[in-house]
Amino acid sequence: MSTESTVSTPQTPVEKTEKPIANSKTVAADKQGTGKQATADSVVSTVKTLAVDIGGSGVKALLLNTEGQAIGERDRIKTPKPATPDAVMAVILQLVNNQRANGSDFERVSVGFPGVVRRGVVYTAVNLHPDWQGYDLASQLSTKVGTPVRVANDADLQGMGAISGEGVELVVTLGTGFGTALFTDGHLVPNTEIAHHRFRKGQTYEEQLGRAALKKAGAKSWNSRLGKAIDSLSVAFNFDRLYIGGGEVKHIDIALPENVIVISNLYGLLGGIKLWEQK
Ligand code: BGC
């Protein structure tokens, strides 16, 4: 099967404008003056979520409606170098200000972060900067933006948006780093980090398949390595489906097995809505 025919694009009717209706926490106005409060059913929720995806080369933002569909266009700013917490936070705040300057406000923020994240705190950030270790991204950003913020590993978040929720599903993202997310019947095993496990020739998956490896080895070798990685991951996880996303999927030119699906990179933002469905 060709790569092209397996690309799964999200169902995201991009809405330019939305009618302002009540927030889920507000009670609908008593227009008829009946003195009765609106029932829960008649209150239409319009909570908007700003989804942010921090990548090694770009920080992206997209506004999502209550159903997780995109509202407007994706915004992107280059990842600063060095990508310290202060520098990246400044970029996120710029993206937030861009939204607000457009008249698009939101009630909460979801962030996909390229490292291990537990309860909003960063543990690793191999492709950004060592200063991220121990940084409480969720709290810091929430204070600065003034809304609740949830943060998850970028591949975990992308997977949440893309999976079917049935069986064992593995997600791999091919970008600056090599992201992975594992789900069983829709339940996430967070922070799997297969990236840094030994793969072949004494190198890890990320060393063989990250962006630096693609540049160094060239697309042909990188594709051959990708085929080997799919075989290896298949033996290790016996997945029902493997989804492959990330900015570098455009370089894939090998035939993929039936149960391997190339997904749009937009899921790295669209998955942001799912963070709010978790406890
Ligand atoms: C990080 C992962 C991340 C992946 C993709 C890896 O280097 O360790 O946490 O998901 O890159 O960004």
Give a brief outline of the structure.
With 279 residues, the protein is α/β, with parallel strands linked by helices. It is built from seven helices and 14 strands.
What does the model show?
With 279 residues, the chain is of the alpha/beta class. The chain has 7 helices and 14 strands. It starts with a helix and ends in a 9-residue tail after the last helix. The structure holds beta-D-glucopyranose. Beta-D-glucopyranose (BGC) binds at residues 114-116, 124, 126-127, 153-155, 173, 175, 177-179, 193, 195, 206.
What attributes characterize this protein structure?
7 helices, alpha/beta, 5-stranded mixed β-sheet, 14 strands, 279 residues, 27% helix, binds beta-D-glucopyranose
On the 0-100 scale, what is the average pLDDT? 88
What bound compounds does this protein have? beta-D-glucopyranose
Helix content: 25-40%
Rg result:
20 Å
Individual helix count:
7
Shape: globular
Q: Count every beta strand, where a strand is a DSSP E run of 2 or more residues.
A: 14
In terms of per-residue confidence, which ranges show pLDDT below 50 for 5 or more consecutive residues?
A: 1-6, 12-42
List the strand order in the largest sheet.
3-2-1-4-7
What distance separates the N and C termini?
A: 39 Å
Helix/strand order: HEEEHEEEHEHEEEEEHHEEH
Question: What is the SS-derived class?
Answer: alpha/beta
Strand content: 15-25%
Largest sheet: 5 strands, mixed
